[in-house]
Amino acid sequence: MLVNQNQFNEQLLLKEVYKGNINAYETIFNTYWKRLYLYAFKVYEDESLCEDIVQEVFINFWERRESLNVNKLENYLFKSVKYKMANAIRDLKFTNIHLSKLLDLPSDSSQENSVEYKELQQEINSVIATLPDKCKKVFIMSRFDDLTNAEIAEKLNLSIRTVETHISNAIKHLKNNLSTTSLYASIILMLT
Length: 192
What we know:
One of its GO terms (biological process) is DNA-templated transcription initiation. The structure is a single chain. The chain is mainly α and 192 residues long. It has eleven helices and no strands. The protein is elongated and about 65 Å long.
């Protein structure tokens, strides 16, 4: 059986980190820091916050190295950033721009098959169904049909500004009508 060279190197690095080898830790840090930062920045465009979150993940990784049992380093690091982001968003003022970005993040197929994902999707669909007709149509075209604001404006014979207003109103409506738990759950699901 062939072993992926990256997985093999990753396991060697992890073993060295567990032993306290700072050079192995620095290699992991240098390999993943930028990707983790960009991942966080997609959700919350605040350089300082994103840098802090990634730094906290690496500090925690180093401090807990003796008690960790990580199988896939990349998965562990990205999930750690995801949970730190969810906590940070819970503690910060969450804007419509952030919710919009979260709704735009792609989801993977494993999430779409989970019970939690299906329940969350049902709640989101129920809230979307309560939007005024024109607002709902614009929002669905934007978020589910992947049309640009200009394309929507042209198809519906509206101004781009009107399309933007409908999308903004829909996002506010979602934010105000989703339960707090569902809003946070949607953030976590959409970050994975």
